[in-house]
Amino acid sequence: MLRSLWLLGLYVSFIGTGLVAPFVTTLGYIWVDTFQPQHVAYLFLNQFPVAMVMGAAAFATYLLLDRRSPPPFFPETALQIVLALWCTATLVWAEVPDMAWLKWDWAFKVLIFTTFVPYVIRSRVQIEALVSTYVFALAANFVPFGLKTLISGGGYGRNLGLQGGNGGLAEGGQLSTVCLMAIPLALFLGHYGQLLPRFRFLQLGFWGLAALAVATAVGTHERSALVGLLVLLAIMVTQSKHKVAYALGAAAVLSGLLLATSAAWNERISTIQNYSTEGSAFVRLQVWRWTADYVAQHPLGGGFMLHLINHIQIPSLNGGAPEIQFGRAFHSIYFELLGEQGYPGMALFLLITGLAVYRLRRTAKRAKAYPELEWVVGLSGALQAGIAVFLTSGAFVGIAYQPMYWYFIAMSISVNAYMWRVERNMATQASGWRAIATAPATGGWRNRPMPPAVGSYSRTR
Questions:
Q1: How far apart are CA 217 and CA 416, in angstroms?
Q2: Nearest 5°: phi and psi at 58?
């Protein structure tokens, strides 16, 4: 009862505060979409469409109260809209039309809402609030899971978090991927965050969140988590200024977590090298082969939920007739996109990802020239690391349309648009005869204009 009342109060506070600060309702939708309070509340929130109400509030408060300084229309946004339209077009020739409509209903909303986010999240305060909301909403799921993992060692298919079942953040592959993607964001908040008071142990708290996220990923016993974790460590060591110390610290933490795991984890991870004979891995390879053959004949894809019509042969261990299995999941973002949306959908996804990473690298490079924009460099690196985790762990998990990746794309557009506004303001201040007439005599025309202090840009619209 108390949990339900507390969650209801938090839900209502997002809407109430959004009437004064409209961007808060967008944060409220991200909280609902990530934390999913309707699945853990016993009263009130589990009885009405909380996501639809909060989403409508987000659009309404923006349109009525907050239509200021929209971001430039980046190519990633255009391509994402095209992908959403293409996903809708594939419904016309979908192999399983009834089920395809059910998946389209939520996948289309994910694609459209995340294109809307950069129009609302514009200033440094708003960007940091978005990152904080996302990380803390996830933390409510992985903190209890991570603590239980440290005590029990975790387990494959075990629900140690808030949610039950085998969907959403209760599914090990998706939970482990999301946790690993959240780690660089948590470390960014610990180093650059301004919304929370900067007391001595704040950064240690965020490092603790990151450690529990690692514990959760390891505790799921998902083999994809190990691949993503190794990629994440490699990227973060590369980005760190103290590479040796960072690598030693990461190795120590990882070794401690591995020692805390059970023998079951070691046994499951060891099956990676036996992919040709291990049952689950063999089935995935067969599904990927079937998907590639299907797309070779149907280059435009087969629409959402195509996997329901696949059929693969599993050789019998005793030499008998092979077993035929139907409707096995893709277990890969790449084959999910390829099978359902064909070559056009795959090309759009790769273009969006490539442009997002390229623009983040360019933004970080430009921001390095100014100490006041060091946080832009840090967030750009964190987003690149999270995207890399998704691209590697997601190769073995079918989560192509899940919100976490698309929120990273939205955050990348917001930080790129912020840098664009900063540079535009600098160009405006440094141009014209007034700037020349009022320039200090000792400055010289060669001096490059510097951006104002961080605080003055925290409210840039």
A1: 30
A2: -65, -45
